[in-house]
């Protein structure tokens, strides 16, 4: 258990870089690991955590996720984002692959959290700026983003009450399986959508038990960040690529604006995409975010890895300033 921090001491965004092992395909192509952490040079990046390829799911969970859960249980909204090119390990890290077979050692973040807490869950997919309810994909109720005095929420999205770890795991597996998957030249299994699995934690206020405190913990498996040209996307796939990148671009801009927030009010462009709008209450202000930048170790992916590291570097600049002008 980490020491409890006061709001002013919260680190709003922490960034972890995670490198997966070389894949079979990369080994067949004689790819060479090229990722090194350079310290003490002008252009070197620094991150809060680095997980080389031999680091386990458990070590990432212990070091980055448990401290975030502690503050979430105290009432701070939190977000865990997996960012990186297709095939870099986002789904593996987050645990949204829908595989019931995963060995305990390979379990990703969400199933690990599920085994520890009781709560409600929702699961949505953002595909071409369209929201889909992954726990009720055949629902014909319109899903729209709304805001009330408790914050931003998706109207009509199913929130499933779960009373056991098994219930939650079933919701995760069911939702993961209904996720839209498109094939690209880069990776036929690659997901072209953003998936947001949310735990809604409700508990009685210790001072006033009749009052409930609700906090949300979002787990976001972002769509692949690779460039359109690399995936040779065409037609409908090109349209997907444009809106996927639109969401990632908007997220980058929000992150960048949060990094520049000073004492004076500043416009944060949350409304530029549904992704940033849905995550609005959990990015900046008094919330906490963990971004996991997933990287291939291979020299053949060097350019994309550099893009990922730059994006993650920008995220790390976010300062926690409570005076935000939410548009
Ligand atoms: P993404 O979601 O970024 O497209 P995946 O999570 O599907 O990528 O990972 C691609 C492949 O690499 C999968 O077969 C996955 O099991 C494997 N993989 C990813 N990260 C790791 C890791 N840290 N250790 C072992 N295997 C990994």
From TrEMBL:
Its main location: cytoplasm. GO terms for biological process: microtubule-based movement; mitotic spindle organization; spindle elongation. Residues 12-318 form the Kinesin motor domain. The keyword Chloroplast does not apply. It comes from the Eukaryota. Keywords: ATP-binding, Coiled coil, Cytoplasm, Microtubule, Motor protein, Nucleotide-binding, Transport. GO terms for cellular component: cytoplasm; microtubule; microtubule associated complex. ATP binds at residues 84-91. GO terms for molecular function: ATP binding; microtubule binding; microtubule motor activity. It is found in: Cytoplasm. Belongs to the TRAFAC class myosin-kinesin ATPase superfamily. Kinesin family. This is Kinesin-like protein. It comes from Planoprotostelium fungivorum. The chain holds residues 1 to 327 of 575 of the full protein.
């Amino acid at each position: 258990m980490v020491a409890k921090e006061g709001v002013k001491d919260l680190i709003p965004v922490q960034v972890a870089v995670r490198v997966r092992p070389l894949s079979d395909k990369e080994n067949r192509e004689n790819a060479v690991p090229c990722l090194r952490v350079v310290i003490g040079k002008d252009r070197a990046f620094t991150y809060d955590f680095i997980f080389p390829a031999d680091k386990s799911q458990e070590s990432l969970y212990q070091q980055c996720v448990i401290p975030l859960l502690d503050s979430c249980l105290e009432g701070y909204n939190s977000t865990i984002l997996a960012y990186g090119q297709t095939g870099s390990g986002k789904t593996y890290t987050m645990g949204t692959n829908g595989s019931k077979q995963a060995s305990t050692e390979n379990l990703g973040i969400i199933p690990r959290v599920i085994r520890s807490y009781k709560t409600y869950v929702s699961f949505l997919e953002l595909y071409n700026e369209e929201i889909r309810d992954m726990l009720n994909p055949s629902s014909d109720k319109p899903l729209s983003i709304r805001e009330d005095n408790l914050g931003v929420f998706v109207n009509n999205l199913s929130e499933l009450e779960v009373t056991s770890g098994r219930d939650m795991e079933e919701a995760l597996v069911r939702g993961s399986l209904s996720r839209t998957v498109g094939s690209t030249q880069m990776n036929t299994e690659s997901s072209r959508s953003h998936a947001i699995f949310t735990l809604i934690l409700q508990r009685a206020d210790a001072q006033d038990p009749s009052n409930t405190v609700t906090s949300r913990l979002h787990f976001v498996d972002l769509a692949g960040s690779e460039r359109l040209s690399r995936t040779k996307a065409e037609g409908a796939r090109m349209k997907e690529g444009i809106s996927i990148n639109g969401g990632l671009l908007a997220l980058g801009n929000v992150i960048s604006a949060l990094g520049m927030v000073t004492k004076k009010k500043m416009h944060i462009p949350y409304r530029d995409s549904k992704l940033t709008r849905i995550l609005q209450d959990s990015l900046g202000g008094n919330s906490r975010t963990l971004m996991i930048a997933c990287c291939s170790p291979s020299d053949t992916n060097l350019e994309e890895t550099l893009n990922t590291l730059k994006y993650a570097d920008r995220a790390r600049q976010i300062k926690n300033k409570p005076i935000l002008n939410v548009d």
